[in-house]
Design brief:
Layout lengths: L5 H21 L30 E6 L3 H10 L1 H7 L2 E6 L3 H10 L6 E4 L2 H9 L8 H10 L2 H4 L3 E2 L2 E2 L3 E6 L2 E4 L1 H7 L7 H12 L4 E3 L11 H14 L2 H8 L8 H14 L14 H4 L14 E5 L21 E4 L10 E11 L4 H9 L3 H10 L17 H11 L4 E4 L1 H4 L2 H16 L4 H11 L2
Parallel strand pairs: 1-2, 1-3, 8-9, 11-12
Antiparallel strand pairs: 3-11, 4-5, 6-11, 7-9, 7-10
Pfam family, one: SBP_bac_1
InterPro entries: Bact_solute-bd_prot1, SBP
Protein name: Alpha-glucoside ABC transporter substrate-binding protein
């Protein structure tokens, strides 16, 4: 079932009204047509430090598309109107593949939202990225924990703050389906397997999954492996794995892959609404959870951002059509590890207007502006929970702002791009399609130079 495009149309109407109101609030001019903005108005006071660049344009390239891209445009529109800077954003489903082509070919964007620290490091090590300005660095240090900033620091140089963030350790389900069948949300791995066995005896498949994502096909399966690694091993071993201090085919990695396989490669468990195990490789990640709303599957492991992928009219709430629970730990006594990700605002140009936009996107003002629009998560510690309406997003922000959370960044995004966004992604497709654990892991290990 294709996800309806109607929410995007509705959002465009709402966004247009919001943009018109913000343009009126900030003055008669508009940065998009080169007019002057009323920088002295009260509504424009938060943008005072970014003045002096009227008529300039900043180009941004990212993987953010469709509804999410519309929301981005809305989130920084008042900044545009109050500073006179025009922000041109281009989202692409082939971002990871095309960004290196553009950069190496001399056609780099001014800014890019890079979700893989490994890819970020690739550009930094080739001196293709511009270090963040002192203003951006200071803003980032005020608003983000050192754990987050280390992911965009290469050889001691800081390149940019996070933008959006996400919590990946969630399992989506239908509260109504659970209630009607007397199922209980599991709090341990064993309980989750017992529940899966119970559901498998009904007419509903316990799990649905999909890892097709264009040039990025395979990444949802890597998230499974990383989440399980955090549950079978210590955070320190996880770090050793992502930095290649232990080989990719280490027995501890094989253990995590095999445990994930007890669900993903189990014909009794998958793939509700789509077919057998191999249908996972050809099912798009955007549509993979939709069978829950059709009563064809019960569980779908996916990140907080999946709240944006449900069909029109789907209510996300604890008593709604869909909700999510924490992907259970194997041994809760060892704490609750959380896998997550995000994108980093990195610069390929250091013009003053580019630096101004990069600094603003690291600010609390921007984070709250985007949060108010909805369906967004940030690790920015200035985010006011009152601005976060979606209950899954609110839970995610609470987790990210909790100092006791054992957080680790998406492992494939930390690895060198050729591995994390290359052989690891492809290896997971091979694995789903029948490849055995040893050969798949050996192939990935052989690619790590």
């Amino acid at each position: 079932m294709a996800v309806s495009a109607r929410p995007r149309q509705a959002l465009a109407i709402v966004g247009a009204i919001g943009l018109a109101l913000s343009a009126t609030a900030c003055g008669t001019g508009s940065s998009s047509n080169g007019g002057s903005s009323n920088a002295d108005s009260a509504e424009c006071a938060p943008y005072e430090d970014y003045q002096g660049h009227e008529g300039k344009t900043v180009n941004i390239y990212s993987s953010i598309r469709d509804i999410e891209a519309d929301r981005l445009a809305e989130s920084w529109k008042q900044f545009e109107d109050c500073t006179g800077i025009t922000i041109n954003h281009e989202g692409s489903g082939e971002f990871e593949a095309q960004l290196p082509v553009r950069v190496d070919g001399g056609n780099a964007p001014d800014l890019a939202f890079i979700p893989q620290p490994g890819l970020l490091a690739r550009f930094a090590e080739r001196n293709q990225l511009k270090p963040a300005s002192a203003e951006t660095k200071a803003m980032a240090e005020q608003n983000y924990s050192p754990d987050w900033l280390k992911y965009s620091t290469v050889n001691g140089t800081f390149y940019g703050a996070p933008l959006g963030s996400n919590v990946k350790s969630f399992v989506w389900y239908s509260p109504k389906m659970f209630q009607e069948n007397g199922w209980t949300v599991p709090t341990t791995w064993d309980q989750m397997i017992q529940l899966s066995d119970t559901i498998a005896q009904s007419d509903v498949k316990p799990w649905c999954a999909g890892i097709e994502s264009g040039d990025a096909t395979g990444w949802p399966a890597t998230d499974w492996i990383e989440d399980v690694m955090l549950r079978t091993q210590t955070p320190e071993v996880y770090d050793q794995w992502t930095t290649h201090e232990i080989p990719f085919n280490d027995p501890r990695v094989a253990e995590a892959l095999d445990r994930a396989g007890t669900i993903l490669k189990n014909d009794k468990y998958v793939n509700g609404g789509f077919g057998g195990v191999r249908s996972i490789a050809t099912t798009s990640f955007q549509e993979a959870g939709v069978p829950i709303t059709q009563g064809k599957c019960a569980l779908h492991r996916q990140a907080s951002f999946y709240a944006n992928q449900w069909p029109e009219g789907t209510r996300v709430a604890e008593d709604g059509d869909v909700f999510a629970f924490y992907f259970p730990a194997i041994d809760p006594a060892k704490g609750k590890p959380v896998l997550g990700g995000g994108e980093f605002v990195t610069a390929f140009a250091d013009r003053p207007e580019v630096q101004a936009v990069q600094t603003y996107l690291a600010s609390g003002e921007y984070a709250n502006s985007r949060a108010k629009i909805g369906d967004w998560v940030s690790a920015n510690n200035k985010v006011d929970l009152a601005n976060v309406a979606n209950p899954i997003d609110k839970l995610s922000v609470e987790i990210l702002q909790d100092d006791s959370t054992v957080f680790r960044f998406d492992g494939s995004d930390l690895m060198p791009a050729a591995v994390g966004a290359g052989t690891f992604w492809k290896g997971m497709v091979d694995w789903i399609n029948g490849g055995n654990t040893a050969s798949v892991l050996q192939g990935i290990e052989s690619s790590w130079k």
